[in-house]
Amino acid sequence: MESDEQLDRIPETLVAADLSGMRCENDRCLALAGVVGEGASCTIYELRPMVCRECQPGDPECDLARRTHGMDPLTPAEIAGAPG
Ligand code: SF4
């Protein structure tokens, strides 16, 4: 569990108004840059919250997120080559 101090380092404009998590628009976190399915990255990678750190390539949360955006689950080869 991250500390309040760690969470406070996340820019306020990227945090949901009710402080429940990251601010999202159309199922997309505002901290995400790029095009989903082509090339995207987290603009606050070093500051990202614990829930994001715990999600790993190929785990059930990863698969769900990929399905939400119309993508198949990662293959074992893709998982092996993915950043953790
Ligand atoms: S890792 Fe977390 S904070 Fe970063 S873009 Fe993804 S959901 Fe948003």
Report on this structure.
It is a single chain. Helices cover about 30% and strands about 15% of the residues. The chain has helices at about 5-10, 50-55, 60-70, 75-80; strands at about 25, 30, 30-35, 40. The strands form two sheets. The protein has a two-stranded antiparallel sheet. Strands 3-4 form a two-stranded antiparallel sheet. The radius of gyration is 14 Å and the shape is globular. The two termini are about 20 Å apart. Iron/sulfur cluster binds near residues 29, 42, 44, 48 and 52. The site of iron/sulfur cluster (SF4) has 8 residues, from loops.
Task: Name its key features.
84 residues; two-stranded antiparallel ribbon; 4 strands; binds iron/sulfur cluster
Strand content: 5-15%
Ligand identities: iron/sulfur cluster
Q: Span from first to last CA?
A: 19 Å
| Count of helical stretches | 4
Instruction: Report on the biggest sheet.
Output: 2 strands, antiparallel
* Spatial strand sequence of the major β-sheet: 1-2
Order of helices and strands: HEEEEHHH
The count of strands amounts to 4
The number of domains: 1
Helicity level, as a percent range? 25-40%
Unreliable spans are none
Nearest-integer average pLDDT? 93
Compact summary:
The protein is built from 4 helices and 4 strands.
Topology readout:
Elements: H1 4-8, E1 24-25, E2 28-29, E3 32-35, E4 39-42, H2 50-54, H3 60-68, H4 76-81
Antiparallel strand pairs: 1-2, 3-4
This protein binds iron/sulfur cluster (SF4).
